[in-house]
Design brief:
The protein is mainly alpha-helical. 72% of the residues lie in helices and 0% in strands. Helix 3 packs antiparallel against helix 4. The protein is elongated, with a radius of gyration of 24 Å.
């Protein structure tokens, strides 16, 4: 088996080891870490007088690599790969304009403070981020429970009846 085939088998094994239900609670835990980090950055940036638009850039640059690393290793049991990281960044970046638009509507349009608007925007993007993270990191979406490998069955030895010489 070549090293590429072996790496492919390891990726598939990692995904199968973490079925959707287990990935769900792990994803939620990592998502919570990322959401808290994002909210803390946004609120801290606002407190020092920096505009929320720049705060979203700072948060994107800090939280995206953190989220990718935690999701790859902890949520999906996958190795860190540049191609998967690029897809992950693409998924997060695709949600970035939506996040910015929500912040503009909530802060500039409705006059909400950043400390209130940021959690609202964060919750609104959870489903998008769940789908994007699965697409970016897993080679396939495994919905089935993990299967336990079994030993190959061998036919039973036939015992003879009578005396053999």
């Amino acid at each position: 088996m070549t090293s590429g085939e072996q790496a492919g088998q390891e990726r598939l094994a990692g995904a199968r080891e973490r079925p959707l239900l287990e990935r769900g609670w792990r994803y939620t835990l990592v998502g919570l870490v990322c959401a808290i980090t994002h909210n803390a950055i946004m609120i801290a940036v606002d407190q020092v007088g920096v505009h929320y638009l720049l705060g979203t850039v700072i948060s994107f640059l800090a939280v995206t690599p953190l989220g990718y690393a935690l999701h790859s290793r902890f949520t999906f049991a996958e190795p860190l790969r540049l191609k998967a990281f690029a897809r992950f960044v693409g998924g997060v970046a695709a949600a970035y304009p939506v996040s910015l638009a929500m912040m503009m509507v909530l802060c500039s349009g409705l006059g909400l403070g950043v400390a209130i608007a940021t959690p609202i925007a964060t919750v609104a993007l959870i489903v998008w981020n769940f789908v994007a993270a699965h697409w970016a990191i897993l080679p396939r979406l495994y919905l089935q429970p993990a299967t336990v490998p079994t030993a190959p069955s061998r036919p039973a030895k036939q015992q003879s009846v009578g005396n053999e010489e």
